[in-house]
């Protein structure tokens, strides 16, 4: 399949490149429309009580969380001064009515909570009409036009605008940082400006693809404002990663004397196959986020999976087409020696050392990874709030000022909705059963504060509760909304315990139902939702990944081992995240505010991303090991050769990806920093300790069991596998005269198949081949783990896709 794709891409290279250029020009304006169309929030479970509470706040009581909060302060004049009132109200009356639905100030509400403790500051709450972002853009300048008062603007809508602006700035800064560094590193790896520039072309296509795909998603669903950095980071990093492997394979084929078409076909059949499996595996891990109901995770899962497939397609279509045009000129403008083909050196020494002492490496690396994971044992999950923005953000300063200088949690009480049990009123005019026209039915009993008073009195007696106020009533729905104010941090464990206590309280006799909402309840419901669905994500992603690995490698052992290795990588990454962000050990270095917790949804996102990236390098290593195993039948030699041949390129790919992720770790938004650091640690651990030491050591100890597959499954695997063939030689070479090793004559070999069995019909690398006396193959004993197979040395002229130098290969005897 991949060989056919290689021929197709080469023959249609100019058409494919022309179509790519035309499509790029057409979609650029569409991608740029993304900014301003993304949504904040999206961390709630739509079916949770806290989400129901927020919906009722809007639908039943005519209001919800304020769109805009305008904070006013004067250094000497107090709020109760008439001049203060005049200045604020004159400013607010100047706002266009077509953009403003409602305004609340201290003077209209007479709420003491709206005056600071020192009496010099107050705030106004504004609800906007229509499209909030457009309405805010229309009134933003006028909000600050107040005589003699210092004005700061915050609230949900300004915070979203700041998040959008910060996201765009972070993206521009990350690209400005990463692109020059990537170019330098690519020149060092490939030694050629032309070769170094190609991965950047593919990376830019992936970034544009990310923008367009997210923009299209906004037409059918909400897309989180945080998704842009995440999706762009993945698209750019993986596009460069995949390009590196494709380029390396192509340049090796050219160096071996292959024509340009042969090199493209060989590249697609080897590196292309591995890139395709990697892209599918990473996309599968990200699509696992769709099992969660939160918009944040679903939009990032869809966008990231799509951009991974775009990066894969660009590396498998656009890049081979470019290589087909360039041919040997891919090495033009050489500046440094080519490091890409150096497969020996340090990695040869590492491979030899691991093969000699596998137990020592297995134990030592496992101890290190467990030690890194230990901080995760005291993890505390939190939620996103204003502290994700930089400390200098205006919206963040407003939120912190309200919490510090005004009534504690004035803007974030615990909402308690009391649904009252109402009865019919009025006396029966005449005796008789209902339905005979004798019993008049009047309106239901009106609800009032008195109906919730007994429950409110019980709430006031709870620890840390400072006040319980009636915040709204709905006659149509028979509900009274209570605002429970407390002196706790809304994101703290103590506040969550208070919500649990309120939910566990028995309702009053006149109460149908009690629903608890608010920021703290939303955080609690989010954690419960994630915990409930995490096993389903693990089941879906694990199952699909094992199927893909089975199809790739024809083993039942390797997929299980790969999953176990990934658990260690992810555990180490999570431990470092807790140490750095929750415990605040990197707060000064990375410039963020430690909150004593880590965001729960981002933790799940890191799990999906890190799992996919870990499988990425696992596939590159195991593909080469399997090719060596099929060629030699020697597990130890195959593992050592696979590590030696891929160690350098995996390290280079990881280094390039780390540059991209490291640049995004400078983002001003804390959760993007958290994601970047988590991915950074995971890649470092995975590319060095896990893929470089732990995986080879475990495979060395497992021996032939690595490739175990029940005989009854072999036929099925032949039908589903995507085999990486050994590439044919670039030009015909005379076959060396086959001869038995003098030290091991055939007759002395135990269990050797007799030469009289020739000619035999055998299958070599999945293709039928017949050997007779004219080719004089040398059958050797079947391995204990490969019954029904023989090891042969045969002429490449007669063996379909055998080793091009006439080496040893395995053949399965059909008859």
UniProtKB/TrEMBL annotation:
Keyword Transmembrane assigned: yes
SSD domain residues: 194-325
Compositionally biased region (Pro residues): 725-740
Domain of life: Bacteria
Keywords in alphabetical order: Cell membrane, Membrane, Transmembrane, Transmembrane helix
Gene3D superfamilies: Multidrug efflux transporter AcrB transmembrane domain
Localization per record: Cell membrane
Family note: Belongs to the resistance-nodulation-cell division (RND) (TC 2.A.6) family. MmpL subfamily.
Full protein name: MMPL family transporter
Organism: Nonomuraea maheshkhaliensis
Lineage: Bacteria, Bacillati, Actinomycetota, Actinomycetes, Streptosporangiales
